[in-house]
Every structure is written in structure tokens, then in C-alpha cells.
Specification:
Mean pLDDT: 90
Strand content: 15-25%
CATH architecture of the largest domain: 3-Layer(aba) Sandwich
CATH class of the largest domain: Alpha Beta
Shape: globular
Low-confidence stretches: none
Radius of gyration: 20 Å
Number of helices: 11
Largest sheet: 7 strands, parallel
């Protein structure tokens, strides 16, 4: 029987969009669809390594540049608005060509606004039905909702009711488009393993902020007395490693190796990206969160979990080893409702 080919296209903005597509790709395979992967940069490299047997295609790159200073973050993004609009148009053109040349029957786009088609079912994945951007939140949210409405369905990787992970970001009172809550997504599961590391540090996100945080943490932990695993979040051809004192440093780890490392850690230090929070909740680990400077979404999530006593956090420029004492006052990050709704998520693709 002919398998329907579903294009899965995550945004390359950090690795979170790509990694949360991993359980979706696995479920597509389990339900006898044929996933076709499309992205760019590190996101594409990661999925090529996770699924070397699948077909992969390159999409136009957004190449968004972050400011080194939090104060200029929003201004620098605004300067790149025309680049984003141009990229959406290029995505639409590339998507049209992929559908025609590769017999695509459906689309799952994780935050790529131009990867859609009026000719086949198109799904948009986001946890941001509201886009927090400070004084411009109303405008950015309305723009996001207008773009989402062009898709047949919007999947939110969260729970519709409380308790949930995304809070106000992922919930609207009266959405004007089809919203489906598919539960939390993670490529990881909790395992009872002996503790090998005091902390595992997992870096991610766009430059230059990823590199700035790396330098800061390497300096803080260079003489630390307990074993630390440091994952730089740089996807290259080969995963290189080195040891500096009690620091074991990897450029990246994939799949089972990363799952085992995280389960073998007493606590995790990472960005407060939404995918990272979903992963931490599945693992049931204590978490110290350092939001990317100038990213209101990550600042909101870190504050929300910190206020609820579910994680510890601080601003990047305030981090020191002393800040980690906050972990003594928090519980493991866990939710009782951690299950996905992927079993019946693909109904849009199942009709002839």
C-alpha cells in the first residue's frame, strides 16, 4: 500500500523546534506514514543524524542575528523584519516545488510560516498563540494569529486545561482558528540510573548568546570539585569531546546517549526554552534556567516556573555558582499529565 508522504519542517532557531519534532516523526512512522524532513542549518543536521534513513531537503535559512546586548535585542529583530518577510516568500516557493517534485500529501510546519499549501492539509506547531514582546505583545500576537489562521490546524504541544506548561502563551479565550492540544512532547523518558554528574549543562539557541553563556559557564565551573557534563549544543560532523578537570565537554549528544546523560545527572542547567522545559518535565529533574537575554518568552517561562517553586532561575548576567543554592528550595520539575495526544493527531492526513 502506498504510504502518504508528510513533510515535517521545523524552524532552525536553536535546536528545540527540531528536537520536539522527533516524537512526531517517530509517531508518523509508527502510523505508516512516510516523513520527509525539511529545514536548514543545525536543525537539519540534527534530524539527519537522528533519522539517516529518511529523505531530507534544505529550506531557505532565516539567519536571524541576535544582539549581544539585551537592550538592543528587539531593535535588531525589527531591523531584520524585511528579511523574515522575504524568507517566508522563499519558503512558500520551495514548499510548492517540494510538493510537486516529491509527492507530498501533508505538511507539519513547526514555526515556519511559509511552509504551507492550500492544496494539501497543512498543520502549524507552536506553543505561542500569544507572542510576548513587551509593549508590542498585542501586535505581535495578532500577527502570529493571522499567520496561523492560514493553516488548516494549529497544534499546541501542551495541555488544554490546568496544570499546563505554557501558561498564557499557549491558551486563548476564543481562538478564531482550529487549535488542537497534543500534550507535551519529548524525545526522552525518565530512567532510574545511578547519578554520575552533579550537573549537566545543556546549551542551545542562536549566536552570539549561546557562545556568551558558554564562556561564562566554562569560567565559573573550571575548578568545580564535582563531575560536570557540559554539552555545548554545536552540531558538527563528528561529536568531539574533551576533559578539563572535572568538566567533561561534548559538542553535542544524540538520542539515547543524551537521554542517559540527563537521567544520570542530579540537576540540569539550561535555557528556559519551551522544548527544554518539556524535556525536563518528562525527566523529572531539578532545573536551573537561564533565559536568553531579551527573549520575553523564555523570561516568562523561567519566572512562571520559579514563582511556582518548580525550577530555579536567574538572569544570564547575574549567574554565579552561588545562584545554584536556589535549587535547594525547589522540587523536581514534573507534571502528572505527561502524555502526548499523537495517537489520533493525524486525522487530517488520513482522509483520501
Amino acid at each position: 500500500m502506498h504510504k502518504k508522504r508528510i513533510l515535517v519542517a521545523p524552524l532552525n532557531w536553536g535546536l528545540g523546534h527540531a528536537t520536539r519534532c522527533i516524537p512526531i516523526i517517530n509517531e508518523l512512522i509508527r502510523q505508516n506514514f512516510e516523513p520527509v524532513i525539511a529545514s536548514d542549518g543545525a536543525a537539519l543536521k540534527l534530524l539527519q543524524k537522528e533519522f539517516p534513513h529518511l529523505e531530507h531537503h534544505l529550506l531557505p535559512a532565516y539567519n536571524i542575528e541576535y544582539s549581544k546586548k539585551k537592550f538592543f535585542f528587539k531593535f535588531k529583530l525589527l531591523l531584520q523584519a524585511s528579511k523574515i518577510v522575504t524568507n517566508i516568500k522563499e519558503e512558500k516557493k520551495a514548499t510548492k516545488e517540494l510538493i510537486h517534485a516529491h509527492n507530498i500529501s501533508g505538511i507539519i510546519s513547526d514555526n515556519r510560516w511559509g511552509v504551507r499549501s492550500s492544496k494539501i492539509p497543512s498543520i502549524f506547531i507552536t506553543h505561542q498563540l500569544k507572542v510576548f514582546s513587551g509593549f508590542s505583545t498585542f501586535i505581535s500576537s495578532k500577527l502570529q494569529q493571522k499567520l496561523i489562521s492560514k493553516f488548516d490546524e494549529c497544534w499546541v504541544p501542551d495541555f488544554e486545561n490546568s496544570p499546563n506548561l505554557s501558561g498564557e502563551m499557549g491558551h486563548l479565550d476564543n481562538p478564531t482558528f482550529s487549535v488542537k492540544y497534543i500534550g507535551a512532547l519529548s524525545r526522552f523518558s525518565k530512567k532510574q540510573l545511578p547519578i554520575k554528574y552533579k550537573y549537566t549543562i545543556v546549551l542551545s539557541g542562536p549566536e552570539p548568546q549561546r557562545g556568551i553563556l558558554e564562556s561564562l559557564l566554562l569560567k565559573e565551573f573550571e575548578n568545580y570539585s564535582s563531575p560536570i557534563l557540559f554539552i555545548r549544543g554545536v552540531v558538527e560532523i563528528e561529536s568531539e569531546s574533551e576533559t578539563i578537570g572535572n568538566l567533561t565537554i561534548f559538542n553535542y549528544l544524540l538520542g539515547n546517549e543524551l537521554e542517559e546523560a540527563l537521567n544520570s545527572s542530579e540537576a540540569i542547567i539550561c535555557r528556559s526554552g519551551y522544548t527544554s522545559i518539556m524535556d525536563l518535565a518528562f525527566l523529572g529533574k531539578k532545573a536551573f534556567l537561564i533565559p536568553t537575554p531579551g527573549q520575553p518568552e523564555q523570561e516568562y517561562l523561567a519566572k512562571r516556573l520559579s514563582d511556582n517553586g518548580q525550577a530555579a532561575s536567574c538572569d544570564q548576567n547575574m549567574f554565579s555558582l552561588k545562584e545554584l543554592e536556589k535549587l535547594e528550595d525547589v522540587e523536581d520539575l514534573r507534571f502528572d499529565l505527561l502524555s502526548t495526544g499523537l495517537n489520533d493527531a493525524f486525522t487530517l492526513f488520513q482522509s483520501e
